[in-house]
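We give its fold:
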Amino acid sequence: MSALSRSSLNYREVTVFAPVNAAFDKFRGDLGQNLTCYHVAYNAYRLRDLNDTYLEPIQKGLPPLWIRNYNGDIYVNNALILPIRSDYQSNHRQDILGKPQVLHVIDEVLDPVLMNGDNPQTAYEFLRTTKDYGVKKFLRKIQQFKLEDLFDSDGVNTYFIPGDEGMDDYKMKMTDSYIIKAHVIPKRVLFTRPVPKNSIYDTLADVDYIYILLSFLKEHQKYYIKSNTILGDATHQNGEIKSEIIHQNIPVKNGVIHIIKRPLGVFDKVLTKFPYLPILDKLANDPYLNTTYVLGQKSGFNNLLKQPKKFTFFVPKDQGWTSVKNLYDYDRLLRMGYMNEIKKILGRHLIIGDIPYSMETLFNASSSNCVFLKTSSGRSCFSILYKNSDKKFVIKWNNVYIDVYKSNYECSNGLIHVIDRPLVTNSDFENVPEESGSFLQLWNALHKILTS
């Protein structure tokens, strides 16, 4: 017990929320001094006084204790008050100076998560400072659309924040101001237990032409939030999306935060087949394969795709080119003064022949060890694996494992296999010539592609 909580019990009028012993067995948070202070609130509140409201903890900087009545029960944050063992009232001393105190027993430990000085954090401050929950991508979108005030307001709301792993390139691009607003239920503080399941809640995405609703679900002991786009447009598809709540019930000054697995209101990208388009046209028209196309144009590599042949092309996603920055000397790639260096790298990804090779064909051919494929940059050994757990193919090349994001994309003159990163090695960045005048044009083009 902290000194503050001990002195409060000795001298103040307080309400104490005491978790049962079994609650601590399940608790995985920090058992620090803030924890005891978060279970003690100013003033004495009997059960009859606990309506939908909030209480102020005795220690500054901790978030409010949110009280909610639901189905005849009373909850503090996500913990149920056990009425038979609660509502015990007594004075801390038996004289005229005695102050009333009330004890309530609850079935969960109240977790303040963190503390920030003398002022409890708002939802925006939490997103800006936390290092434990992986929410920086959604934070960048909030800042991009200048919606900080929605998460930093004095009002109370329920916030759903997608984790970084669920925000791939496509979902990042599709997350606009309407999608961000769809992650906020206004004027309600909804923890996962004291909330009706399948009930509909309005969001801030409520305008004449975009209307998105949310509802809570519980399936197999897991909690989910479901979005339903009632009114949409060309970029906001009508329909439902379900996202698992992976970190529940984070209290903040202006409500509660739930970290969710994927963004709401954004459907998975469907790669539409263009069987009558040649590969080069497909690359030119797909914004998510743009880097490979522009590099091919600058280096002259794309001329190979104009031959009357059949092609098997392993095309890295745009994000895959960016990942080279973390794995290799990315700056050297940008300093390449001769286009034939880039052309050589792109050539490893292209097989030219009389027939294209599906991933299934390559997998069967390399089942024993590897299959030697004649790429436009020379023979290379590929091992094709299959991950049953993820239902996807994996390429092993030069002792590097690369996921196949999309296999067997049909075009009129071959197949595209979209891969998670390019086929590059450290040696590609050795003995690179010094910068030349022609290099500046290449660098500017690459910089625009890889930072957009």
